[in-house]
Amino acid sequence: MNDQTPTREEREARLEGMGCRRKRVEDIRFTQGKGNYVDDLKLPGMLHGDFVRSPYAHARVKSINTEAALKVPGVLAVLTAEELKGVDLAWMPTLAGDVQMVLADGKVLFQGQEVAFVVATDRYAADDGIQAVDVDYEELPVLIDPFKAMKRGAPVLREDLKGKKQGAHGPRKHHNHIFEWTVGDKELTDAAFDKAEVTIKEMISYHRTHPSPLETCQCVASFDKIKSELTVWGTFQAPHVVRTVVALIAKLPEHKIHVISPDIGGGFGNKVGAYPGYICAAVASIVTGKPVKWVEDRMENLTATSFARDYHMTTEIAATKAGKVTGLRVHVLADHGAFDACADPSKWPAGFFNIVTGSYDFPVAHLAVDGVYTNKAPGGVAYRCSFRVTEAAYCIERAMDILAQKLGMDPAELRLKNFVKPEQFPYHSALGWEYDSGDYHTAMNKALETVKYAELRKEQAEKRAAFKRGETREIMGIGVSFFTEIVGAGPSKNCDILGIAMFDSCEIRLHPTGAGIARMGTKSQGQGHETTYAQIIATELGLPADSIMVEEGNTDTAPYGLGTYGSRSTPVAGAAIATAARKIRAKAQMIAAYKLEVHEDDLEWDIDGFKVKGLPEKFLSMKDICWAAYNSVPPGMEPGLEAVSYYDPPNMTYPFGAYICVMDIDVDTGVYKVRRFYALDDCGTRINPMIIEGQVHGGLTEAFAIAMGQEIRYDEEGNVVTGSFLDFFMPTAAETPHWETDFTVTPSPHHPIGAKGVGESPNVGGVPAFSNAVNDAFSFLGSTHIQMPHDAWRNWEAARKLGVTG
């Protein structure tokens, strides 16, 4: 080997493959203001549409007069439910098996509901037209409290379902009832509680919040009457699913529908489902023969598009006096709003909430979830979580702290005592999941040692003593959270959306010069797919990541996929990428064997090409193999190097983590300060450490917002009182704490590259860490559980009720 021959380390570094802190290639355009968003699209003759929305949460629509609106300069059309009935589009199916009004049909069921769609030459004319539409409402009794929804005499909300005893997920018990879903062994669980030495029971509510992505929901629909083809550009997290839904709703042939999702400016679950704006824009384009753009404003996004959470969880744990858990029993009252529009896999009406056993070895458990209708906006999306996993993690992590408090045991010690042990994996939980791998004790102990947990508890004891002596008005809380998430939906045996299995896909095509293009069925909303996907290919095929173009979001070019949400990109699409690359590498090996005049079994892979075993000087690089694939392949072999893979995962993946939050609270003002936040994540194989850190920072910031103030709140009349960023807490750099990240690595045994996913994890583990810190701070004053969110006002209220305010 001469001095010019690169070392193995140099060859690996040139690839910028898995494990490299490669800079995000997307940021070149984003940081220069060159992102390509839906609202940037301008087509010849394009019109603009906007909604008349209901000011009432529940009202009869007695009449809609559009005459004055149609006289407004620039207004071309006004659509109401009556017009949509003419094309059988007044109602649309939801992903949860329910139906939802596109435009108000006879009544409105939540404030901000779409009543009419005004189409005009520009947004200003459309707004003038909205003001001119005259709607006569008759107010009806409002039902905001989900606990009142199932009471005798409660108002009938869904008159279209009146008298129906069966829903999409089984029997309905009440006219405002959607479903009851149960899992686990009730008899064995009840027996465990009967024999328990210690039990706790607490109502743990996870308030309603909202994903509030950077860009709101928007679309442009353009119908070509000559070709009878519909093209829709939109903020879609799952473009192929949207195409299929449009085909089913509009009765258009699917090959005549083209869905394009450019840069969408964040999603967090908010852009998975279909909204009335998409349907109305498409209908308006068909009616007018021109492209129609719909872009919602921020208040519309917060008040009318898909919410998250609103789960009210009665939680019980049975345990021994020594702190060993023996049973878990949870009942959830799930507020779904006016329509069941949750974006969950079809067979899972409560998502994957049955991960509620968490990281703990519960021998028995039982879960029951009741979904109910209220006069709130519909939704229930996986806001930076995997299908109700955040609610489940918050539920069990608060409950474990409450149990520790009752036992007089340190919360970290209680968790260590009950963790699933490494030798128990693959672990079958009491509620039906098979955890793939984990080393919880190692992760927790590393976290405790890093933050010097014992010293923190000592400091806390000293501060509590000083508080009781009147020497300080601050109390100190230490929040411990350990979560196991379930991501990577999912296996076709139990996961589908609208009957379509939740696989994902990748197509890779290599060019003669060694460059290539990869197309996936996912859709990035900021995760860095263009960067990390190319890194997987770089490692698998030995070509520099910079030579691979990654393309998503166009249903005409990308293979069919189920989109991006619930941390499924790496666990499912990442696996599809690896398997497609390995198909190409297998063909490349045959070409290399032919060129090197050896049997293919005599070759072995070596970073960026194949070498002959025992003769390392006989080597053919992958770049040279690409050239050979187009001019000198073995006899009988087709030229070219390309492959498609549709990956149906055999199981979910189960990332986990240990989070610790240290917080000080002034009892006289409720003002809090997050002194330290440490987050250890185990997401299996780490593709790009820098992007992982960015994902964790972003997820923790959202967790901080949710736990410490972010809420969609309604008054008794159903008015949204947090419908703008003046009232809806959106933390800036000034409020956001410093994040300290760490990791362990426990690869998934069934994933082709061992990856598990990480994008949702910080939100899943972060929220209970913050809440546990607040509750821990107040616990020595006699408090057991304080509901979120923990803004300064509520902290002060908690202190006042405990009699410790000045």
Element layout with pairings:
Blueprint: H1 8-15, H2 27-30, E1 47-53, E2 59-65, H3 67-70, E3 75-79, H4 81-85, E4 91-93, E5 99-101, E6 107-108, E7 114-120, H5 123-132, E8 134-139, H6 146-149, E9 166-167, E10 170-171, E11 177-184, H7 186-195, E12 198-209, E13 218-224, E14 229-234, H8 239-250, E15 257-260, H9 276-288, E16 292-295, H10 298-304, E17 308-319, E18 325-335, E19 365-372, H11 389-407, H12 411-418, E20 427-428, E21 434-435, H13 440-450, H14 453-468, E22 474-484, E23 496-497, E24 500-501, E25 504-510, E26 516-520, H15 529-541, E27 548-551, H16 569-596, E28 603-605, E29 609-612, E30 615-621, H17 622-628, E31 641-647, E32 656-666, E33 672-682, H18 689-708, E34 740-743, H19 761-779, H20 792-801
Helix pairs in contact: 11-19, 15-16, 16-17, 18-19
